[in-house]
């Protein structure tokens, strides 16, 4: 193995009274591509700053081979200079190299640096670092705010780079594609796995199980030694003082383990009663801003329990589409029909609802007081905040003091406190550590409501989505079953070809996920529904309008905590009536959908 070009040895650093690193060793050899993995707050960004030479450790050694050039892309980069080219050349890169790097990320080198979006800021920072042709490239959350196409551009750049690369990221698919080594920052130390990130979870599971066994053995030994000490050591010979000292060391070791044990995060969401079978119905939807077409003639149907992913390049109109689907933004043409009994929870990627001077306590309880309603039950705001790993001290701190991951956890805490049967998550994975991501994924997998997810995290989309809507920024919108990989296999070239060759026919042509139209032979039997079918459709409309109110009434009656004790028979009757009403509503909606599709097919065949 070649000697390292950048290394840390026995590094220690305290953050106030808290020890952040205690004997960290880490080495990067030439052309190493490694992941640095750890929980939010473990100190990954601080460790990267020590490696970059921007922060000095309290103790230990940073060794770097003379002449080694280190480029560091911060988690929140600052773009300076009059133009993007000025910024990209500020570190010494040649102008032609800097321009080529910017253009590879879809940026105009002559563009000004003011008013950049999060994605443009990230791409400009990455372009500058790559153009400098460094020996060591340190990347802190490089995929945040990048669309999937830009992430793939970055993957290609890392693969062709001669630099050693160390990456902090929550994006599993990205890490699996680019890494060949993992460093795990846990309990103030770093452990190394000489394999790529695909092997990381199994390795951590083995380590954790072995350490749990060792902790149980130490606890047993501590129990025995404590019993020995209780029998009295003062009258024993001096040689027993060594045993007493070992006991004290064992106690301190256990206390250290307990201090290092992170609280478990409790994440759950309650469905706010059952929504209608049809959640959103879209027909012929079109929207443009000026001459820029966002989508044209797009139709889809979202049913209860669907998990819809919305993907595409930055600026393609993903958030616009979501707002159109929710009725928050008017369409230029077409129709959006929302289903019945919808309760929506919306997490905005811009975190617009969080003001910097707002206290965390007030963000969770905006009406004041110490109690908030969590999925229909009162809970103390401090206790609820602790479920999302916030400390007592943070409760009364302003939002500006929170990290990006902590802000995202705060938004999740606010949204998940409310009962909802339609959850809309716009870039929910930014800045979250992998443990929190796994917990969020498990919660969403068990969620009984409907999910609309805007995300650039390919692994997250593949694990959750039942269908994926893609926008390519040229007005075309296509929906296919499955996740990101399914979308790519069914729509090759959709994001990269000219409009004339893109899937979906003419420019802006959308494809619906809904059932195929009835055959022409069926349409030939008549131009409209029969009298009996038309009457049945009217009856179904009345039932669908009436049943949700009855369901809500039964749900309120069953929510009475004393009902079962007071009247078990009534509790059973209400429960049976509620199940029957829900079944009747679902059957009515399915029959209504079938008749509506038949009516549309007949009218199309006239």
Which terms would index this structure?
606 residues; Rossmann fold; 5 domains; six-stranded mixed sheet; 20 helices
The helix count comes to 20
Q: Tally the beta strands.
A: 20
**How do the strands of the widest beta sheet line up side by side?**
5-6-7-3-8-9
CATH domain class name of the largest domain: Alpha Beta
Shape: globular
Beta fraction of the residues?
Answer: 15-25%
Helix- and strand-based class?
alpha/beta
In CATH terms, what is the architecture of the largest domain?
3-Layer(aba) Sandwich
As for the CATH topology of the largest domain, it is Rossmann fold
General description of the model:
There is one protein chain. The protein is an alpha/beta fold. It has 5 domains: 6-202, 3-Layer(aba) Sandwich (Rossmann fold), CATH 3.40.50.300; 215-260, no CATH class; 268-343 and 420-512, Rossmann fold, CATH 3.40.50.300; 354-418, no CATH class; 520-604, Valyl-tRNA synthetase, C-terminal domain (Helix Hairpins, Orthogonal Bundle). Helix content is 41%, strand content 20%. It has 20 helices and 20 strands. The protein has helices spanning 44-52, 84-89, 95-104, 118-131, 148-160, 172-178, 200-230, 240-260, 318-325, 360-364, 381-387, 392-395, 404-416, 434-446, 458-464, 484-490, 520-523, 531-558, 563-566, 568-604; strands at residues 6-15, 18-28, 33-37, 59-64, 70-73, 136-140, 164-168, 181-186, 189-193, 278-289, 292-303, 307-311, 333-338, 344-347, 371-374, 377-380, 422-426, 450-454, 467-471, 477-481. Strands 5-6-7-3-8-9 form a 6-stranded mixed sheet, sandwiched between helices. Strands 14-17-18-12-19-20 form a 6-stranded mixed sheet, with helices on both faces. Strand 1 (6-15) and strand 2 form a beta hairpin. Helix 7 (200-230) crosses helix 8 (240-260). It is globular, with a radius of gyration of 29 Å. The chain starts with 5 loop residues before the first strand and ends with a helix. Residues 233-239 and 497-526 have low confidence and may be disordered.
């Amino acid at each position: 193995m070649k000697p390292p070009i950048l290394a840390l040895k026995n590094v220690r650093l305290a953050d106030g009274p808290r020890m952040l690193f205690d004997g960290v060793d880490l080495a990067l050899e030439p052309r190493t591509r490694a992941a640095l993995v750890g929980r939010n707050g473990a100190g990954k960004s601080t460790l990267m700053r020590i490696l970059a030479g921007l922060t000095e450790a309290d103790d230990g050694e940073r060794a770097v081979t003379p002449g080694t050039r280190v480029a560091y892309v911060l988690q929140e980069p600052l773009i300076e200079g009059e133009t993007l080219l000025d910024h990209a050349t500020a570190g010494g890169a040649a102008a032609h190299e800097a321009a080529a790097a910017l253009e590879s990320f879809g940026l105009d080198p002559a563009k000004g640096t003011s008013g950049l979006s999060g994605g443009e800021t990230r791409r400009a920072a990455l372009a500058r670092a790559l153009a400098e042709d460094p020996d060591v490239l340190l990347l802190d959350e490089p995929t945040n705010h990048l669309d999937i196409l830009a992430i793939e551009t970055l993957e290609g750049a890392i693969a062709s780079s001669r630099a050693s690369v160390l990456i902090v990221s929550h994006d599993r698919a990205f890490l699996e594609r680019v890494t060949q080594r993992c460093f795990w920052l846990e309990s103030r130390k770093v452990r190394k796995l000489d394999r790529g990130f695909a092997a990381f979870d199994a390795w951590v599971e083995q380590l954790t199980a072995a350490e749990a066994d060792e902790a149980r053995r130490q606890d047993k030994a501590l129990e025995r030694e404590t019993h020995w000490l209780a029998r009295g050591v003062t009258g024993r010979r001096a040689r027993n003082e060594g045993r007493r000292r070992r006991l004290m060391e064992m106690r301190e070791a256990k206390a250290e383990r307990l201090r290092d044990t992170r609280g478990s995060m409790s994440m759950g969401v309650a469905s706010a009663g059952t929504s209608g079978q049809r959640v959103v119905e879209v027909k012929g939807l079109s929207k443009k801003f000026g001459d820029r077409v966002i989508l044209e003639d797009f139709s889809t149907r979202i049913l209860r329990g669907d998990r819809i992913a919305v993907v595409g390049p930055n600026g393609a109109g993903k958030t616009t589409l979501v707002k159109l689907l929710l009725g928050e933004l008017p369409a230029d043409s077409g129709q959006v029909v929302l289903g019945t009994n919808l309760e929506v929870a919306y997490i905005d990627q811009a975190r617009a609802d969080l003001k910097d001077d707002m206290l965390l306590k007030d963000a969770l309880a905006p009406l004041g007081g110490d109690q908030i309603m969590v999925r229909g039950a009162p809970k103390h705001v401090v206790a609820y905040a602790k479920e999302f790993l916030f400390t007592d001290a943070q409760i009364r701190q302003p939002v500006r003091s929170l990290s990006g991951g902590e802000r995202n956890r705060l938004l999740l805490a606010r949204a998940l406190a409310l009962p909802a049967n339609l959850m809309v998550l716009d870039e929910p994975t930014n800045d979250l550590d992998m443990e929190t991501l796994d917990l969020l994924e498990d919660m969403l997998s068990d969620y009984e409501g409907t999910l609309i997810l805007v995300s650039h995290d390919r692994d997250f989309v593949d694990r959750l989505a039942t269908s994926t809507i893609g926008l390519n920024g040229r007005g075309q919108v296509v929906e296919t079953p499955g996740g990101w990989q399914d979308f790519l296999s069914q729509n090759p070239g959709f994001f990269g070809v000219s409009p004339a060759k893109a899937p979906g026919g003419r420019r802006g042509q959308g494809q619906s996920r809904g059932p195929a139209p009835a055959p022409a032979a069926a349409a030939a039997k008549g131009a409209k529904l029969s009298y009996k079918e038309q009457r049945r459709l009217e009856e179904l409309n009345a039932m669908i309008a009436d049943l949700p109110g009855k369901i809500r009434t039964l749900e309120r009656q069953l929510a009475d905590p004393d009902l079962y004790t007071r009247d078990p028979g009534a509790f059973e009757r209400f429960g049976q009536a509620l199940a029957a009403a829900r079944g009747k509503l679902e059957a009515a909606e399915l029959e209504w959908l079938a008749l509506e599709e038949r009516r549309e097919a007949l009218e199309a065949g006239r």
